[in-house]
């Protein structure tokens, strides 16, 4: 039966080629536009650390003065001060923890053919690598004792290693950073979490550091700070923030492996705030948050508003294309009332007619899906040429490929239901008489 | 021609006609809002910066060393840049209008000890900024040399808890002055920043847009007499004749490299390039909206052609009968044109309501103003035009049906 219906559908589609092409094009364009924007949205709202994100939490504190505080409404700071960061780090209440901030160092290659260049850097503590599951190609992360001894060690990215050492194992070699000699202890594999969740002040997408330096060492060597900083009272920023200033400029992440530990950590934060208030450092009542990775990304609204707008727009467009297809199919099916009447009179059930007509819309959907897929590739190519930081990430993955066909066929079957159900309600006698 | 028979015949194709009306309504709603979004983007891209935009070149360097001699180096750089033929003025400045990245912002208060800040301002500072940028001084004066302080001393004194090392005076924009003291003379007035550090207004400039964060008020900018070095993130801003910019940029880079080859060039561009890079996203978005509009109109237009052709095919007999009974070709043509006009008209009425609803939805989720009513008649006109163009070919085919068709059975 399937083969017969397919044959009928193809014959019917061939009979009116211009209309068939028009319907396929409408579906293809609608699907192409929706899938392009949906893919961008899918890429941008993805999980940057799959498998780990649910256990990674971002503690927030509120060390500001009472001025402007509205209980229950004011959100705590998005970063921590040096003092609070160090206190939380040394308290060590979580399964793993790391304190970090962004920066920039001048890389001065030994190789005279390369000019000195700046590289984005991350100044952090040893917990960073195991906590985020950072993969190593060569060597290993630095240790907690390196943090304490302010060791002159550095971990570099695969990209920087390729540029400086042609991809060879460079561990043990010396690297000059902003005029200081550092020993390479580790080289990463390709690791680019998108969004750049652990520090959103450095741009949300396609930001990756070439150099990782112990936080303590970076402060010793006066390396430049880069990234967001908020101050209150009489405090100013600059490239070398003071450790005692009333500014937040560091990020603190913890790993908490069970809900009980999350609850315990939250009460620890409340307790810490109370303690700091008693000491006179904090003025506000405890105002803390403990968000996991996806909640933190949501709260910061990292997916650009324009991308959401484009997605809505393209689905509106798909809707118009579908209504268009429904109208055309309806007209087409109704016109075949005579033929359908003959089939009914010869004994075909309504169900059979309905299946036959839906087959026709399914074939349209499949063709539209192929067209839509081509247009999606074209659309994503256009997106990648856009100036945004995230643009380069826009690629189709197998999931979205499947979604494209499901969307195209589902949409055209949906579009076929109304016309088919109306068309197969023909009264055979009336149609036969008319002819 | 009588409309009633057309309506009566439409009632026989209720579902198809309703679908077409729905399609036109959706198209109308989306197109009206998309055109409005484009106009918003275009407006944003044309915002004035207040500077002599076509005469400026920016070079930003990063230091590799510890920056201990950055002050003398910066002085030497400025002197060298000034000597390049064609260069009119050179400034060192911490930030520029319409650029991405970290911007210096502060919370402004009108009274010391005020609970919540009045508004947020962008803080510009550097050497020789007002005249190099070409800002238009409306009232008061520019900074005097003795008013300038060094950024590092100002920051050091702040971190020691005193505002002594900070500048006392400030130049503000006209827009900010009007927001702070509506209808009053701003010169000589004082406001407070940070932990109640007072600043006295000594000058008012026409415009100076903030680098970004326009939701804080694009015109809310202030200028401080504060010196900074290239190592503290200062950019060299060079003013020259528009035609000389490329040559000056090249000569400037060569000069700076000659003075210290070890530095890293972080930015080298004309201000026009900087500006278009900042708005590249808006221009891409309006291109995208424009292609959606075109595609929508195309799909809807083709949809009308398709449906109208079907109707013509279906009604060949009726048309033949009408022709046989004396209707002229023009009558048949007009019949289809009026039918289309009515359908599109219904679609537009529904579409306007939907456009308005969509606009309310967009206002809720995005910082957008309400769709101005002027867009609705424009959208209506566009769709009517589209409908008439689309229906013309099928209608002509209908008009060409000979009366003899009436006598045939199929």
From TrEMBL, chain A:
GO terms for cellular component: plasma membrane. The chain crosses the membrane at residues 21-44, 312-331, 352-380, 400-418. It holds the Pfam family MacB_PCD. Residues 313-428 form the ABC3 transporter permease C-terminal domain. One of its GO terms (molecular function) is transmembrane transporter activity. It is found in: Cell membrane. Residues 20-265 form the MacB-like periplasmic core domain. Keywords: Cell membrane, Membrane, Transmembrane, Transmembrane helix. It comes from the Bacteria. The keyword Transmembrane applies. It is a multi-pass membrane protein. Its main location: membrane. This is FtsX-like permease family protein. It comes from Oleiagrimonas citrea. The lineage of its organism: Bacteria, Pseudomonadati, Pseudomonadota, Gammaproteobacteria, Lysobacterales.
From TrEMBL, chain B:
The chain crosses the membrane at residues 15-38, 288-312, 341-363, 375-396. The keyword Membrane applies. One of its GO terms (cellular component) is plasma membrane. It is a multi-pass membrane protein. Signal peptide: none annotated. The keyword Cell membrane applies. Keywords: Cell membrane, Membrane, Transmembrane, Transmembrane helix. This is FtsX-like permease family protein. It comes from Oleiagrimonas citrea.
């Amino acid at each position: 039966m399937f083969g017969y219906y397919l044959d009928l559908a193809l014959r019917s589609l061939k009979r009116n080629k211009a209309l068939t092409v028009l319907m396929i094009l409408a579906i293809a364009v609608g699907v192409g536009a929706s899938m392009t924007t949906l893919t961008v949205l899918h890429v941008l709202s993805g999980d940057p650390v799959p498998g780990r994100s649910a256990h990674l939490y971002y503690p927030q504190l509120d060390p500001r003065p009472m001025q402007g505080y509205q209980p229950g409404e004011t959100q705590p700071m998005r970063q921590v001060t040096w003092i609070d960061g160090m206190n939380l780090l040394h308290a060590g209440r979580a399964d793993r923890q790391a304190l970090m901030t962004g920066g920039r160092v001048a890389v001065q290659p030994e190789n005279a053919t390369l000019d000195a260049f700046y590289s984005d850097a991350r100044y952090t503590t040893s917990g960073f690598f195991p906590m985020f599951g950072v993969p190593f190609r060569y060597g290993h992360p630095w240790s907690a004792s390196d943090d304490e001894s302010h060791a002159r060690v550095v971990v570099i990215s695969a990209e920087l290693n390729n540029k400086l050492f042609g991809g060879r194992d460079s561990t043990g070699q010396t690297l000059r950073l902003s005029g200081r000699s550092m020993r390479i202890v580790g080289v990463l594999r390709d690791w680019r979490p998108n969004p750049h969740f652990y520090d959103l002040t450095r741009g949300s997408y396609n930001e990756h550091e070439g150099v990782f330096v112990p936080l303590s060492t970076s402060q010793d060597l006066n390396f430049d700070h880069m990234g967001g900083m908020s101050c209150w009272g009489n405090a100013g920023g600059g490239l070398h923030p003071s450790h005692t200033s009333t500014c937040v400029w560091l990020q603190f992440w913890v790993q908490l492996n069970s809900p009980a530990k999350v609850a315990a950590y939250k009460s620890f934060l409340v307790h810490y705030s109370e303690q700091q208030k008693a000491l006179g450092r904090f003025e506000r009542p405890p105002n803390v948050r403990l968000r996991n990775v996806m909640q933190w990304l949501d709260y910061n609204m990292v997916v650009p508003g324009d991308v959401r707008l484009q997605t809505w727009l393209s689905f509106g467009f798909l809707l118009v294309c579908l209504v268009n297809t429904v109208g055309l199919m309806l007209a087409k099916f109704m016109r075949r009332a005579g033929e359908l009447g003959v089939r009914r009179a010869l004994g075909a059930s309504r169900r059979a007619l309905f299946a036959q007509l839906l087959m026709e819309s399914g074939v349209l959907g499949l063709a539209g899906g192929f067209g839509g897929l081509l247009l999606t590739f074209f659309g994503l190519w256009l997106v990648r040429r856009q100036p945004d930081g995230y643009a380069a990430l826009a690629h189709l993955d197998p999931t979205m490929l499947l979604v494209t066909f499901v969307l195209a066929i589902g949409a055209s079957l949906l579009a076929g239901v109304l016309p088919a159900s109306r068309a197969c309600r023909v009264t055979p006698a009336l149609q036969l008489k008319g002819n | 021609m009588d409309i009633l028979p057309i309506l009566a015949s439409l009632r026989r194709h209720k579902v198809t006609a309703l679908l077409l009306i729905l399609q036109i309504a959706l198209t109308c709603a989306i197109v009206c809002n998309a055109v409005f979004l484009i106009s918003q983007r275009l407006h944003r891209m044309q915002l004035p910066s207040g500077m002599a935009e076509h005469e400026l070149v920016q070079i930003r360097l990063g230091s590799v060393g510890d920056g201990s001699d950055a002050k003398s180096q910066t002085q030497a750089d400025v002197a060298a840049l000034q000597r390049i033929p064609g260069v009119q003025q050179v400034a060192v400045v911490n930030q520029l209008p319409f650029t991405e990245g970290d911007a210096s912002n502060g919370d402004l208060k009108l009274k010391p000890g005020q609970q919540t800040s009045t508004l947020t301002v962008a803080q510009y500072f550097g050497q020789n900024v007002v005249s190099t940028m070409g800002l238009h001084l409306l009232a008061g004066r520019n900074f005097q040399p003795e008013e300038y302080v060094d950024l590092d001393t100002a920051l050091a004194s702040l971190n020691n808890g005193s505002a002594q090392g900070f500048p006392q005076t400030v130049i503000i924009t006209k827009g900010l002055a009007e927001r702070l003291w509506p209808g009053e003379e701003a010169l000589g007035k004082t406001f407070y920043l940070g932990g109640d550090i007072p600043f006295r207004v000594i000058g008012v400039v026409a415009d100076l847009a903030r680098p970004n964060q326009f939701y804080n008020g694009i015109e809310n900018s202030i200028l401080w007499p504060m010196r900074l070095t290239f190592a503290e993130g200062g950019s060299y801003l060079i003013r020259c004749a528009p035609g000389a910019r490329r040559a000056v940029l090249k000569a400037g880079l060569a000069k700076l490299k000659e003075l210290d080859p070890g530095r890293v060039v972080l930015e080298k561009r004309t201000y026009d390039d900087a500006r278009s890079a900042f708005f590249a996203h808006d221009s891409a978005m309006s291109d995208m909206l424009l292609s959606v509009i075109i595609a929508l109109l195309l799909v809807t237009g083709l949809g009308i052609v398709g449906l109208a052709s079907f109707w013509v095919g279906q009604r060949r007999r009726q048309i033949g009968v009408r022709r046989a009974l004396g209707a002229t070709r023009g009558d048949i043509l007009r019949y289809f044109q009026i039918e289309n006009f009515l359908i599109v008209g219904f679609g537009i009425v529904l579409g306007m309501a939907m456009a308005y609803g969509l606009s309310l939805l967009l206002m809720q989720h995005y910082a957008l103003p309400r769709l101005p009513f002027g867009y609705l008649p424009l959208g209506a006109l566009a769709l009517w035009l589209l409908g008439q163009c689309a229906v013309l070919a099928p209608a002509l085919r209908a008009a060409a049906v000979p009366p003899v068709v009436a006598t045939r059975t199929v």
